[in-house]
């Protein structure tokens, strides 16, 4: 489907006013581009380890949205201009330039799929996108089909590979697995395919659960083997109850260091005695902080594995 991208160049101080104007005019999915530095609070809310390096903030911003080509674009531009005139009585709106261009939803929804091809995550484990054909298959290959949708988790990233290495080493046919931040469900699927008897996944993003259940079905994982819940297990007491206590032989979390640190203080109550906590998504500069948190919260470090700039802990 074709869309019209409409962008308004303005000032950072006018962004909230203009976002409200766009909303009043029925424009949804508003995008804001600026160079305002992220605060520590922003960083924690967005779950990012490294703050991006931005150009100097000169107070400029661009507010963008997308509308159907059936919309009267000239009329819309006129309404935006009138709204800007009103807003200008209260705040500096800057140059107020409005630009439009035609785009295609495929530009941001499907184009990435052209770069996601089947690959080996281990000698005998192959990750295959659901829309691709696997040509290089060995007799004993374990083939995992994945469509991540809008969730994180194709299996290609070093952090996911580190988790897979840990799962492959420690999973047995008696393993009950808890996958915190399950994303596309890839680690739960691999865990179950490696022989785990059951798995439970959690993710703060509801879209992740949709992707996970779809991928479970594609990989012939039954509903009896897997359950997923939406929410933040660190803070959500109701979710903690649903997940259950002292139940899991292995917990795997491929998230970020700043999430794993508080998670290490909460997750023990869900684990069996001598259970293993496999964590990854840890940039190397955060290694010592995560290790200190694990030790402080009663874990014994069993292994530390690295790949590129990323670190994974196996803790007991």
From TrEMBL:
<dbReference type="InterPro" id="IPR029063">
    <property type="entry name" value="SAM-dependent_MTases_sf"/>
</dbReference>
<comment type="function">
    <text>Methylates ribosomal protein L11.</text>
</comment>
<feature type="binding site">
    <location>
        <position position="203"/>
    </location>
    <ligand>
        <name>S-adenosyl-L-methionine</name>
    </ligand>
</feature>
<protein>
    <recommendedName>
        <fullName>Ribosomal protein L11 methyltransferase</fullName>
        <ecNumber>2.1.1.-</ecNumber>
    </recommendedName>
</protein>
<dbReference type="GO" id="GO:0016279">
    <property type="term" value="F:protein-lysine N-methyltransferase activity"/>
</dbReference>
<keyword id="KW-0489">Methyltransferase</keyword>
<keyword id="KW-0963">Cytoplasm</keyword>
<feature type="binding site">
    <location>
        <position position="181"/>
    </location>
    <ligand>
        <name>S-adenosyl-L-methionine</name>
    </ligand>
</feature>
<dbReference type="GO" id="GO:0032259">
    <property type="term" value="P:methylation"/>
</dbReference>
<keyword id="KW-0808">Transferase</keyword>
<comment type="similarity">
    <text>Belongs to the methyltransferase superfamily. PrmA family.</text>
</comment>
<feature type="binding site">
    <location>
        <position position="160"/>
    </location>
    <ligand>
        <name>S-adenosyl-L-methionine</name>
    </ligand>
</feature>
<dbReference type="Pfam" id="PF06325">
    <property type="entry name" value="PrmA"/>
</dbReference>
<keyword id="KW-0949">S-adenosyl-L-methionine</keyword>
<keyword id="KW-0689">Ribosomal protein</keyword>
<dbReference type="GO" id="GO:0005737">
    <property type="term" value="C:cytoplasm"/>
</dbReference>
<dbReference type="GO" id="GO:0005840">
    <property type="term" value="C:ribosome"/>
</dbReference>
<keyword id="KW-0687">Ribonucleoprotein</keyword>
<dbReference type="InterPro" id="IPR004498">
    <property type="entry name" value="Ribosomal_PrmA_MeTrfase"/>
</dbReference>
<feature type="binding site">
    <location>
        <position position="254"/>
    </location>
    <ligand>
        <name>S-adenosyl-L-methionine</name>
    </ligand>
</feature>
<dbReference type="InterPro" id="IPR050078">
    <property type="entry name" value="Ribosomal_L11_MeTrfase_PrmA"/>
</dbReference>
């Amino acid at each position: 489907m074709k869309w019209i991208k409409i962008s308004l160049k303005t000032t950072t101080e006018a962004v909230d006013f203009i976002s409200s104007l766009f909303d009043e005019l029925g424009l949804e999915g508003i995008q804001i581009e600026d160079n305002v530095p992220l605060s520590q609070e922003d960083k924690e809310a967005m779950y990012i380890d490294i703050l991006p390096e931005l150009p100097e903030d000169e107070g400029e911003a661009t507010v963008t949205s997308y509308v159907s080509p059936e919309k009267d674009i000239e009329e819309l531009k006129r309404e935006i201009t009138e709204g800007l005139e009103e807003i200008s009585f209260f705040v500096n709106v800057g140059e107020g330039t409005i630009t439009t261009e035609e785009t295609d939803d495929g530009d941001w929804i499907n184009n990435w799929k052209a770069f996601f091809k089947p690959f080996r995550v281990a000698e005998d484990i192959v990750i295959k996108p659901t829309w691709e054909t696997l040509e290089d298959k060995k007799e004993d290959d374990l083939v995992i089909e994945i469509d991540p949708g809008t969730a994180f988790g194709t299996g290609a990233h070093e952090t996911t590979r580190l988790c897979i290495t840990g799962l492959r080493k420690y999973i047995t046919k008696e393993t009950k697995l808890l996958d915190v931040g399950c994303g596309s469900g890839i680690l739960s699927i691999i865990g179950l395919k490696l022989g785990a008897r059951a798995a439970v996944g959690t993710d703060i993003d509801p879209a992740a659960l949709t992707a996970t259940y779809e991928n479970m079905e594609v990989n012939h994982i039954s509903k009896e083997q897997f359950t997923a819940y939406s929410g933040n297990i660190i803070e959500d007491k109701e979710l903690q109850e649903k997940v259950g206590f002292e139940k899991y032989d292995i917990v795997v979390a491929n998230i970020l260091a700043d999430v794993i640190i508080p998670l290490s203080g909460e997750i023990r109550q869900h684990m069996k005695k001598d259970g293993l906590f496999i964590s990854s998504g840890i940039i190397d500069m955060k290694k010592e902080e995560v290790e200190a948190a694990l030790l402080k919260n009663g874990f014994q470090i069993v292994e530390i594995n690295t790949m590129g700039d990323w670190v994974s802990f196996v803790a007991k």
